[in-house]
Every structure is written in structure tokens, then in C-alpha cells.
From TrEMBL, chain A:
Highest taxon of the lineage: Bacteria
SUPFAM superfamilies in UniProt: MetI-like (SSF161098)
Record PROSITE patterns: ABC_TM1
Keyword Membrane: yes
Membrane-related topology note: Multi-pass membrane protein
Source organism: Roseibium sediminicola
Residue intervals of the ABC transmembrane type-1 domain: 96-304
Name of this protein: ABC transporter permease
TM helices/strands, residue ranges: 40-67, 102-122, 128-144, 179-204, 241-263, 283-308
Subcellular location field: Cell membrane
Keyword field contains Membrane: yes
UniProt xrefs under InterPro entries: MetI-like, MetI-like_sf
Family assignment from sequence similarity: Belongs to the binding-protein-dependent transport system permease family. CysTW subfamily.
TrEMBL record, chain B:
Species name: Roseibium sediminicola
Keyword annotations: Periplasm, Signal
Transmembrane segments: none
Classification via InterPro entries: SBP (IPR006059), TAT_signal (IPR006311)
Pfam families: SBP_bac_8
Keyword Thylakoid part of the UniProt annotation: no
Keyword Transcription regulation belongs to the record: no
Record-given protein name: Substrate-binding domain-containing protein
Length: 314, 430
């Protein structure tokens, strides 16, 4: 989850830092340097940060994924045992499928909810003040830890929880619904609850930048509300949707704690495979799983990016 | 490291009440004969870092150590997997490892722990037989699994291989142990439970749970499969690949049929599952039963006819411990076996390695209830003040000899451990 946020923070910092000295000493202006050199200098801080905190750790993970492990230690080697076990075990495929299933379903729900909320904020709320107030309201639950927000579902959904006792007293059901908790339902519910804001924010952001005159033009030309939505608003909101989708998909695919708690440890995703391996000191095997997960996530993102050229749209 | 510890201790010393420190020093020097009084003064400056599972890493113990011995004990409580990991990979992060015997079997070969001289242990002769010869009474049969005495001794100070008998060099000084069984909610089950097979009884579909710590979970699973008559094990504590496959097949099928409500990994999870009524029968630990009961919810640690799955824990010393810190650690161990901690633990339902010294710290009613299996003559309270039983009640499972005498299997690490772990992961993912 933090990877992306960090990335953005680093970007801001990196962009801000090199500018400052040039202001202080105008005689040392960047204009004197050839464009190529100043370009390299400007990108240097970010490049260094990314190299030390992103590239190096990943290289390390890839290296360790070829190592061997005993019960209590790991030793350098170059062997394919970890990958062989991983890629030949039917459980791996099952778990990856499960992970992708969670990601897809969560993505669909967060997209619909996130888009609706953003649409309401951007087009139905007329004054900027109210837009800001309502937007802040959306973020308030995120001031608490996401683990607490997740765990608070457990007493709510339990066999004798609030949801079941309310439904029973209303006469809707006779016996408690067991599938409310410790099931795929509860896992996805928690995911949707936790990650919808990551969809709302970028979509709202792009919607706010849509020129209102385009919508007026659509109406003037006789487009219905639905036609305006599908022909004007959705195409122009695509970059926001794509950024939100990348957030949600990567967050869900890398998660392990939500799946562990909300499924009562009964379901597995790739994150749990990795955390189990680490708990049992099988670092090389964990690293191999992490490498495969990384490749999978990169594939998914590259597929998403084929639909929209974020660079061009931003 | 020594410098750091000493300087840390000095700042703490200012908080220490003079009286307590003097008493501590006096007690300290009195406890072990032959140590010069001079270091009883220095010992106040020592800080020992102990880590282990939650069962015995209690702040009350650290407080009492400060009062009685004068030095500071820093406690860190982790789950079993994390404890193993830390003992194996971060030898410099601790001075005292409070670990279980099966963890010791895994960790000892790393060389991160040092053997301890039994001649320095004052109460060594009074330690129960389970940890020395392996036999509770001369007639006892030794149970399957990693029985503590099989990994309790090494040949010498630098011994790597475990010795089968008493050698004078111990890997862990035993401190705490118990016999585990299934916990049930008698109010929600409403009939007697007497066998491990009940865990997979379809009657409790969606209301059963098992713990998700592979090395312990597999033993509970084996107890169930053996009780069902599905599998005859050569040694449940050291299964063959075939036995592991069969066991996991039976449990995977049960899981797919919706037998389990959830799996738990930490103490708190097991308490919540039981107290909320999500689960009515599950693998459980003794203090978790106590925690459920203290909320006013009926919960029984049900003795079963096939016997108990038992575990034992002890204190191991880091390889890097030497000089004053090492002496302090020995003093701590002697204090540990001297009875106060034993009484404290026994009043929570565990057993002390030297029960006879613990007796001095328990009243007759407590000793009768917890150790002898007698009817309580008055309220039985936990060390934290919760009432656990009222007059006339007896302990689930009876006396010490009845309970520890009916151990079917010890928590274990198998030769096929890595294979088992992979199969267990598949079971969880299935």
C-alpha cells in the first residue's frame, strides 16, 4: 500500500530539492548548463532514492529467491528448487487464482461505488465549499488504522453479531447467516470498505478538471444524461479510473492481513503464502513467491496501461 | 554490549527503592552459596533481555525479579513462530530465551544457545522426572513426540548433539509445562464429550476450529485421526510422509465440507472465537479457557480418553552471555525454580518444573485444587483476581499425576518437518 504513496512523495521531494539552490544563487543558473546535463541533474535525486530503496531491495529479493534454506538458516546458492516447488504445486495456482479473484471483484465494486461517489461530488454538489466538506467527510474514517476498521467488522458480522441479531429480530431470517463472517464475502466486504477511497480520490480529481462547457455542449446537442455520461464524462475520466484501478489492484494483490483476519485464516492469497514462509524461516521460498507476485502485478498493470495512456491524458 | 547494559541499569537504579535493592542483594547473595557478596552489589546494574511466548512472559515476573534480585528483566512476548525465528536468526537480540522444547530442537543446532551446568542449579534434584529421565513415575511410559528429556541434555558445554540421558549439561532449564486438550462450550454442546474424534463430528459443522501453528496443529490433527481409527501412527511426533499425507487429506476434506469456522494463530483469537460462540469445540490452551471463564462464559478444558497433547517450556541462555550477566542469569534461573514463579504459574493452570517449592507459595485450597485434583474448599482465584472456580468444583482432568500421566504425545519437530509444513500450507490454502 505504501509503495505507491511513497513514490509520489519522493517525486515531490525530488522535484522540489534541486530547484532551491538555483534560486539562492542565480549566478549558478541551470540555464547555463546544457539541457541534457540539467535534465540528468534534476532526475538524479529521485533516481538515487529509487535505486537505493526500490531497485536494490528488489535485486536482493531476486537473488535470495535462488538461495537454499534449512530449518533455521539460509545459505547462498544458485538453485531453482524454490521456483520448481512453487510452479509445480497445484496450490500455487489455486492461490494465485484466488488472489486475482479478490482483486477483480474488489476492483469492480470499488469502481462502481467510487465512480458514483465522485460523480455526485463533482457534478451534483454545486458549491466548492460543500464539495470540499463532503470530500473531507469521505476521508474521515481513514484517520483510524485500517486494521481497526477491518477488525471492527468481526463483531458486527459474527454469528451472534449485530447484523445477524438485527435480521433475526426483524424476522428476515430464522437462523443466523454463517457466511457473513469468515468467508469470501467478508474478505471482499472489508477490501471494498478499505480501498474505495483510493478510487474516489483520483476519479474525483479528474472529474473536477472536466471543462463544464463540454457537458453543456453535449446537452445543447441533444444528448441524454446517459449519453453525456458514456460519451463525454467516462472517456474524460479514464485516467482517474486507471490510477484508482492501479491502486486498488496492487493493494489487494499485496494484502495478507485482511485475508487472514476476515477469512478466519481459512482462505489464502499470495501474501499469506509469503507470510507463512517467512514465519517458518523459509526466506528463499518467500522471495521466490514475491518475485512471481511482482511479475504478475506488473503484467496486470501493463495490461491496464494498454487501455489508457496516462502520460498523455494527465 | 556490556557497557550498554550497565549504563541502562544505572538510570533504572534511581527508580529502584533503596530498601528493595538491599533486600534483593541480600536475597541474591543468600540464594546461591559461594558467590562473593561483592557482585551482589553490581547485579543491580544488570539488564537481562528475555523473550518468549506469552504464557510465561509476564510483567508480574519482571517486577518480582526486580524486587527479589534487584536487576532488570525486559520481557518480549511473541508467537511460537516468531520466537523460533528470533532465536535462530537474531542471537544478539536476547540474553534469555524462554522457549518450548520442540523449538529447542530446531534452534539448538544454530549454536545460538549455551549449555547450562546442572551443578549450578540449586533445585536440580527436585525437578520432575519428565525433564530428566523422561518418566513421571518409575512405571510411566514415555509418550510420543519430542519428549523434553530427549532434547534436554548435551554432552558438554559445546555439545551440538543431544544426549539421551542426564549429563550435567542442560539445553533448557525446564520452567513450565501442561497437558493440552480440546476446549468446549458445554452450554452450547449440551452432551458429554469424551473423544478427540468429536472435533470432526459433522454435528459441529461450521463450529469447530484448530490452531494454525503447523507443528502443534498437526499433532491435534493426528490425535483426531488416530482416535477415529483412520490412521495408525508409528510415532505421531515423527510421522512419515505417507502419514502426513493421509492426515492432511482427512482434514482437507473436513475443511472443504465446512467443518471449521476459522483457524486461530494467537491466544486472543482463540479466546474470542470461543467467547463469541462462533466456535463450540477447538484446540485450545489452558489460560485461554481461563480467559473465557473469567468473562462468565462456561468453558471446559475437556479431558479425552485418548489422552493429552503435552508441551514443555524452559529457559535457555544466549551464547553471548558471559561474566556478570551470566551469573545474574543463573541467579534468575535459581530464583525461577525457587517457588514464587511456580506458584504464580500453577494458579493459572500450568505446572511448575519443581512443584514442591511452589507449594510454599500456594495455600492449601489452591494446592489441593490445582495439583492434587481435590474439590476446592473455597473460591479459586487466578493471580489476577478473577474467580475461576467455586467451592466444591474440581479441576478438569483431575490431579497432576492423572493429567501428566495421560500424555499421549509431546509437541514435536519431525524429521519430515519441511514436508509437513508445505502440506500444512496446502491445507490452509485448500
Amino acid at each position: 500500500m505504501t509503495d505507491q504513496t511513497h513514490l509520489f512523495i519522493h517525486k515531490d521531494r525530488a522535484a522540489a530539492e534541486p530547484v532551491r539552490p538555483t534560486r539562492a544563487k542565480p549566478s549558478f543558473s541551470l540555464h547555463r548548463l546544457p539541457d541534457a546535463v540539467s535534465g540528468w541533474l534534476l532526475s538524479l535525486p529521485l533516481a538515487l532514492v529509487l535505486f537505493f530503496f526500490l531497485v536494490l531491495p528488489i535485486v536482493m529479493i531476486v537473488v535470495v529467491s535462488f538461495w537454499g534454506a534449512t530449518e533455521f538458516s539460509i545459505y547462498p546458492a544458485f538453485q531453482f528448487d524454490n521456483y520448481e516447488f512453487l510452479l509445480t504445486s497445484p496450490v500455487t495456482y489455486q492461490v494465485f487464482l484466488n488472489t486475482i479473484k479478490y482483486a477483480l471483484i474488489t476492483w469492480a465494486f470499488t469502481l462502481v461505488i467510487g465512480f458514483t461517489v465522485a460523480y455526485f461530488l463533482a457534478f451534483h454538489v454545486k458549491t466548492l465549499t460543500w464539495q470540499i466538506v463532503l470530500f473531507l467527510l469521505c476521508t474521515i474514517p481513514f484517520w483510524t488504522s485500517n486494521i481497526i476498521r477491518m477488525i471492527s467488522w468481526i463483531p458486527f458480522l459474527g454469528r451472534n453479531g449485530i447484523a445477524n441479531s438485527t435480521l433475526i429480530s426483524m424476522g428476515v431470517i430464522d437462523a443466523p447467516l454463517d457466511w457473513l463472517l469468515f468467508s469470501d464475502f467478508s474478505v471482499i466486504l472489508a477490501f471494498v470498505h478499505l480501498y474505495t477511497l483510493f478510487m474516489v480520490v483520483p476519479i474525483f480529481n479528474t472529474m473536477m478538471r472536466i471543462d463544464k462547457s463540454l457537458i453543456e455542449a453535449a446537452y445543447d446537442n441533444g444528448a441524454s444524461g446517459l449519453q453525456t455520461l458514456t460519451n463525454v464524462i467516462i472517456p474524460l475520466t479514464k485516467p482517474g479510473i486507471m490510477i484508482g484501478s492501479i491502486f486498488v489492484v496492487t493493494l489487494v494483490m499485496g494484502d495478507f492481513i485482511t485475508v487472514r483476519f476476515m477469512s478466519g485464516s481459512q482462505s489464502a492469497n499470495v501474501g499469506r503464502l509469503i507470510s507463512n514462509d517467512i514465519a517458518l524461516l523459509q526466506y528463499p521460498s518467500a522471495a521466490a513467491t514475491a518475485v512471481i507476485l511482482l511479475i504478475t502485478v506488473l503484467l496486470v498493470i501493463s495490461i491496464l496501461l494498454r487501455f489508457v495512456d496516462i502520460r498523455k491524458e494527465l | 554490549m556490556t557497557d550498554k547494559l550497565v549504563s541502562k541499569g544505572v538510570s533504572r537504579r534511581s527508580i529502584l527503592k533503596g530498601g528493595a535493592a538491599v533486600t534483593g542483594a541480600a536475597l541474591g547473595s543468600g540464594a546461591i552459596t559461594g558467590f562473593p557478596t561483592i557482585w551482589a552489589q553490581n547485579i543491580k546494574d544488570v539488564t537481562l533481555r528475555q523473550f518468549g511466548t506469552g504464557v510465561s512472559n509476564l510483567n508480574e515476573v519482571a517486577q518480582k525479579v526486580k524486587e527479589d534480585l534487584g536487576f532488570t528483566l525486559e520481557m518480549t512476548a511473541l508467537d511460537s513462530d516468531a520466537v523460533t525465528q528470533r532465536a535462530a536468526t537474531q542471537p544478539d537480540s536476547f540474553d534469555i530465551a524462554d522457549i518450548e522444547y520442540w523449538i529447542c530442537k530446531k534452534v539448538w543446532p544454530t549454536g545460538n544457545l549455551q549449555a547450562m551446568e546442572t551443578s549450578k542449579i540449586k533445585n536440580y534434584d527436585k525437578i520432575v522426572g519428565i525433564f530428566k529421565s523422561g518418566k513421571l513415575t518409575p512405571e510411566s511410559e514415555i509418550a510420543q513426540g519430542t519428549a523434553p528429556h530427549t532434547v534436554g541434555f548435551v554432552d558438554g558445554p559445546d555439545g551440538k548433539a543431544f544426549a539421551g540421558e542426564e549429563t550435567g549439561w542442560m539445553t533448557l532449564i525446564p520452567t513450565i509445562y501442561n497437558a493440552d486438550t480440546l476446549g468446549i462450550r458445554p452450554d452450547l454442546i449440551g452432551r458429554p464429550i469424551s473423544s478427540w474424534t468429536e472435533l470432526l463430528n459433522p454435528e459441529f459443522k461450521g463450529k469447530a476450529s484448530i490452531l494454525d501453528i503447523s507443528s502443534i496443529g498437526i499433532m491435534d490433527a493426528a490425535m483426531v485421526c488416530e482416535a477415529m481409527g483412520e490412521i495408525q501412527y508409528g510415532d505421531k511426533g515423527n510421522m512419515t510422509r505417507e502419514e502426513i499425507d493421509k492426515t492432511m487429506a482427512i482434514f482437507t476434506e473436513a475443511k472443504k465440507n465446512g467443518q471449521f469456522r476459522a483457524f486461530w494463530k494467537t491466544f486472543d483469537e482463540s479466546v474470542n472465537l470461543m467467547a463469541s460462540g462462533e466456535v463450540v469445540i477447538q484446540s485450545m490452551w489452558s489460560p485461554a479457557i481461563t480467559a473465557v471463564k473469567s468473562r462468565g462464559i462456561p468453558c471446559v478444558y475437556q479431558p479425552l480418553k485418548e489422552g493429552y497433547r503435552s508441551w514443555g517450556g524452559g529457559i535457555g541462555l544466549s551464547k553471548s552471555l558471559s561474566g556478570l550477566e551470566l551469573d545474574a542469569a543463573y541467579e534468575y534461573i535459581n530464583w525461577y525454580l525457587d517457588g514464587w514463579v511456580g506458584g504464580f504459574l500453577m494458579r493459572q493452570g500450568y505446572y511448575s518444573a519443581v512443584p514442591e517449592t511452589s507449594k510454599n507459595y500456594m495455600d492449601e485450597n489452591e494446592w489441593g485444587y490445582w495439583f492434587e485434583g481435590k474439590e476446592a474448599t473455597g473460591d479459586i482465584t487466578s493471580p489476577f483476581g478473577d474467580v475461576l472456580a467455586k467451592a466444591g468444583e474440581t479441576r478438569d482432568g483431575g490431579s497432576f499425576l492423572e493429567r501428566m500421566g495421560a500424555v499421549a504425545c509431546w509437541n514435536a519437530v519431525m524429521d519430515e518437518n519441511q514436508y509437513m509444513v508445505r502440506k500444512w500450507n496446502e491445507f490452509i490454502a485448500a
